[in-house]
Amino acid sequence: MFDIKTGPRGEDPVSWQLTGAHFLLILLGVFAVVLGANVALTVFAIRTSPGGPLANAYDASQTYNARIEKMHLQDKSGWHAQIAVDTTGAGRFVRLKLADASGAVITGADVTARLEHPATSRLDQPLAFAFKSGQYEADISDLGAGAWTLVLDARSHGQSFKSINHIVLH
Fold it and tell me: How confident is the model at residue 3 (pLDDT cuts 50, 70, 90)?
């Protein structure tokens, strides 16, 4: 049978007792594990997150109306862009056709652009556009497949054109 003063097989009961020091060590151990997990996950999140699109949201809010006015001026200028990814032939290219309100091709524009990766800014790539055969083109043969954001800025004859486009590379 089973006696309270002995174990189930008749051996002496365990002489170990939970003391305040033991409880403190267990409690500190649990908090150390939780804190270690939080630190590891925070470090991982900071290293892999591109962060927000704005360096300072307050400053951006102070210039919001001016940016809207610039967009209205751009709309009034009549400039428009046609963007296409060309995978026919050798290589892969982004082709850009800039035209004014009358449909005339805008030549000699200073075009700067970058492809932004949606997951991390470490993969962002600047693009070098060159004018060829009535359009601007940039070689993107080195880029991997996936979704990208093309941020475009073109300037010519005192006017500017800004555009943000989403493209998918296969």
Answer: very low
